[in-house]
């Protein structure tokens, strides 16, 4: 723990605990600079949010079930659809992230930790898990 954390500076773990307490959410896993939240959606699917501190940036990532073993296998229609969705999203964006050695479409958002508060935290998490759940539902229908 750095001196800044001891003297009123930013502390990732205590901040995440406080934000989750305010939203009445349980934390699945909490480390020095990362956290995992799990949500059981009305759709029956589970959405997992990975929160990572990268210096002053807080990254939120919600990996979808849409993944491909290699770059050559990526479905161009899905990629185009998600890129088009990006233009309509106020919070978050779709990207490809490597998860368990696969290319996985992931809903993400980055914010400066100084701009984050408990209301923004809850709004970001809810927006991303609902976006991911909606896309997975549409993907399941195909």
Can you put this structure into words, describing what you see?
- With 142 residues, this protein is of the alpha+beta class.
- It has one domain: Yope Regulator, Chain: A.
- It is 36% helix and 34% strand.
- The protein has helices spanning 3-6, 12-23, 76-86, 118-141, and strands spanning 29-30, 34-40, 46-54, 57-68, 93-99, 102-112.
- A 6-stranded antiparallel beta sheet has the order 1-2-3-4-6-5.
- β3 and β4 form a beta hairpin.
- The longest helix is centred in the C-terminal third of the chain and has 24 residues, at 118-141.
- The model is unreliable at 1-8 (pLDDT under 50).
Q: Give the amount of beta strand, in percent.
A: 25-35%
What's the helical proportion of residues? 25-40%
Strand-pairing-aware structural class: alpha+beta
What is the CATH class?
A: Alpha Beta
- Supply the CATH architecture: 2-Layer Sandwich
Low-confidence parts lasting 5 or more residues at pLDDT below 50? Answer: 1-8
Please state the oligomeric state of the protein chains shown: single chain
Distance between the termini: 49 Å
CATH topology-level fold name: Yope Regulator, Chain: A
Number of strands: 6
The count of domains is 1
Question: What is the topology, as strand order, of the major beta sheet?
Answer: 1-2-3-4-6-5
Query: What is the overall number of helices?
Result: 4
**Mean of residue pLDDT?**
91
Give the SSE order as H and E letters. Answer: HHEEEEHEEH
Gyration radius (Cα, Å) is 16 Å
Largest sheet at a glance? 6 strands, antiparallel
